[in-house]
Amino acid sequence: MIRKYKNLYVELDAANIAWLYFDRADASANTLSAEVLEEFDLCLDYVENMKPSGLVILSAKKSGFIAGADVNEFVPIKDEATALTLIRRGQAVFTRLEKMPFPTVAAINGFCLGGGMELALACTYRVAREGEGTQLGLPEVKLGIHPGFGGTVRSTAVMGGPAALDMMLTGRAFNAKAAKKAGLVDMVVAERHLKNAARHLLKTRPPKRRPGGLMALADSALARPFLANAIGKKLAQKANPAHYPAPFALLDVWRKHAGNLERMMDAEARSVAKLITGATAQNLIRVFTLQEKMKAAGKKNAAKVAHLHVIGAGIMGGDIAAWSALRGIRVTLQDREAKFIAPAIKRANELFTKRLKEKRLVQAAMDRLIPDVKGSGAGRADLIIEAVFEEAEVKRALFKGLEPKARPDAVFATNTSSIPLEEIASALTSPERLVGIHFFNPVPQMQLVEVVNGAATAPEVFDRSLAYVLQIGKLPLAVKSSPGFLVNRVLMPYLLEGVILESEGVPVTAVDRAAVKFGMPMGPLLLADTVGLDICHHVTKIFSAHMPLTVPEKLEQLVKAGHLGKKSGKGFYDWRRGHPVSFDKRDSLLSESEITDRLIGRFVNECVACLREGVVANADQLDAGMVFGTGFAPFRGGPLKYAADAGAWELAERLKEFEAKYGGRFKPDAGWSSFTKDR
Amino acid sequence: MTDNQLRPVYVVDGARTPFLKTDHLPGPFAASDLAVMAGRALLARMPFAPEQLDEAVIGCVMPAASEVNIARVISLRLGCGKKVPAYTVARNCASGMQALDCAAKDIALGRAEMVLAGGAEAMSHYPLMFDLPMQAWSIEIASAKTLGKRLAALAKFRPRFLKPVIGILQGLTDHTIGLSMGQTAENLAYRFGISREEMDAFAMESHRRLGEATDAGRLEEKETLIGPDGTVYAEDSGLRRDTSMEKLAKLKPVFDPKVGLVTAGNSAQITDGAAIMVLASAQAVDKYNLPVLGRIVDIRWAGVNPAEMGLGPVHAMASVMKENGLSSSDVDFWEVNEAFAVQVLACLKAWEDPLYMKEEVEVDGPFGPIDRSKLNVDGGAVGLGHPVGASGARITLHLLNVLKRNNSRRGIASLCIGGGQGGAILVERAQ
Questions:
Q1: B chain contacts of residue A382, beta-carbon cutoff 8 Å
Q2: Is the pTM of this model over 0.90?
Q3: CATH assignment of B179-218+297-428, given 3.40.47.10, 2.60.120.10, 3.40.50.10300, 3.40.50.720?
Q4: Cβ distance B224 to A338 under 8 Å?
Q5: pLDDT band at B1; cut points 50, 70, 90
Q6: Can you tell me whether residue B258 is helix, strand or coil?
Q7: Of B60, B102, B347, B416, which one is the catalytic site residue?
């Protein structure tokens, strides 16, 4: 007996157990849209009437239980009242599931996040499939909200406040094993036993999971204010409540109402309704959507890279090789001698150990990463990436030498950040096979990879490069071959303005504080110190050939004195055991808003120039690129979104004002005119 | 296996690890690690993907308990995929050559086109074990259900249960005759009247040749390894460049204490290593345009007195010579594995001894002397060590590279085998 709906179906078996499968139409993964939710409610009517001995909720999709709410439906929500109605409806459906007169089990095969996790928490029991791909969590804070369908209430009830808060405030996901340990699931089994485990739970009906001892005590009215205070202090060190209100709102809901489920439910709904209509959530949702779009970019192309050959085993080349091996690609890593490859192998082993944990998985990744002094791998690789030092002639000779050795269909990629692609490509008989694949340091942490389309690059070669970047789990940003591409080109004026401000007498910490307050992950001077002042100097020199940039005198002096930043122990900061310390005790002559406007003004101005020149396809891609490539304040939705929100016209006026005061470097780009009209 | 109706078998290429001697046991790599590191470097330069191999055959005497059917472990780790079958072979000291024999037969018979074959051994990983009484006692404790029974079982413990069984000593002993390998070597010294000085001189020369070959870059089949901690292993670490007759003379006999002649200095060292090759049919060579290092013409095996196991090569090589109608002068280069300096010297004496050849090998007269300048030209196991699973593949691969370097045609590689056997392989290069 099977009953079908558009997005789910349910069947009753001979043992009188109802099996309800989520199977969202026209999608590869389940999400909870309003439509799916209503159908689920209807289906619960039907199931209740059948009077089963129990209900098991599963996914009919190959991987994954339910990914969460349908984020696309968040965007049009503009007023709090509408939001509140929608949230209360969701709460009602899940509460109904919770109150079914028979036990219920969520059988979780793969990811179970956000709304999916909330649904699972409303079940009596949860069983998760062990192994890769299973991820459970409530990552809503990453979208500027917190759980709204009873997730705050039920996770607290199951795990205890401190554990539940830790999960929700960080937004981190648990694998199956960790979820069991944290009390989020009742059982973890192999896929072959997922249904058996559900049957077992329905048959034996063990007591529902509850936090024990201290955890339970933490949720008492007496302990909460004290704990919330402590957690709030820690939180404030990591996030600015003005920029990211959600974690603070969540903590507040718990502190005030964790004693009373109904009131907590109500407070949760009101809090989310308020957050979701706020600027931060709307911008973070925008960033999330842009990210999903980038992930969809190269999907048409199915040909995966089986063998990658990397030339140059320095930090960049070594980390590109290691990251690709981590993601399942066979990699040969070439350098002149084994001793130059050895540090890369060591770092790779550390990376694999940290990420993969299990010994056999680490071993498999290490087996895939093959030191290759002779460069034998070049003959069979699908893709060859060079990351040797930035010298056009070296790169030209390298690719020229590769051409007769490599497979005719192998893609040639350069990781250059400063040499025009065309200059390298002209050394090749087939210049159309050369593309730029520009990684950022540190490779394991940086999500964005610029894929550079040279004048001669073949479309097929470009598509395969996008697909490779997606294959290794990074976000590809298609950029035109022009000096600095997007990310470095925009970062340099920001960084140099910081240097100029400092030499004008603004204390180091005041410069960086202004940037961080705006929402940048790192101030320009700390960034310069971290990158290395010699590198900043070198890059500025190269860029100055194409852009109106000059090396500030201060930078010149520091480099000459051997003060290179973090690596030499002294730069704009003094570095003590890897930590920056500033002894700059000067008083700032400029207001903080002037500092911010100068830094961000140059940043955004360069973005406008890049958009006008077509370095990236459109404003959305530019915003995504800057958020994922530089960490530009995600809650602002990207530099161009920020410009639109702040008023493009006003920003352009401010630049003009600075131009009159400080000179040509602030000259508003010609692109502002069309930009102000368009938005 | 003469090649009348059988298909010819080609050696495409091969690679080996440095042979690693470790002062502190166990060494840095398990046997499968070593095979994977040599094999992946080899496969990276092949024009075909690992998945296109037809099978993998690996020789290994004592894989770790976690490496059951180590050939399959290795082929999976090399990315050959689930469809490439793999089996492990053992013929003690010639296990690596046995792997070549099996692979060659599969190709000759038309069962396979391309086979990954070789050997690996991590002798420094040989385990310490508890003997059967300890095992029986442990099982009794574990299966005792009541407290009384458990106490009774506990009381049966005897301290001697804790005496470890040392894997490597067990492995290097012939239990049917109760002699260690070194004692069988002492037998040869006695029978052929070979002096301590002769053995030590042979050992000196072996180290000298290995040092020279290393410096001249003649060990081109050797792949540098990088450990997960970033340590680089580039050289065969058994090589002693500073050895001298005086130093060798100071060493004490290890197998027959006080009165024996065989020392650690004039024996093969205990090292870890792997050597891996790709063998292919003519069709595969054509299809993938594979390079050809040489052809395996014949492989022969022989049995000898276990107490004189070191003479195995004489019998196996004689069989190859006879079946292929060769005399010593037809063979350009020789590799006879140096299990013991005295054992190679004894082989040479027997080879030239008409009486021995007639009575024990049962061939008419000697095949002619083997020129020492054509034998083990780049040193041998005295300097490199003898990881028992790997040596057979190593000497064959190196012999082919020697032939290539000298633009020569024919070579024979041979090993003695603990338990009283010999194996020999005849290879040829097209000219």
A1: none
A2: yes
A3: 3.40.47.10
A4: yes
A5: very low
A6: coil
A7: B416
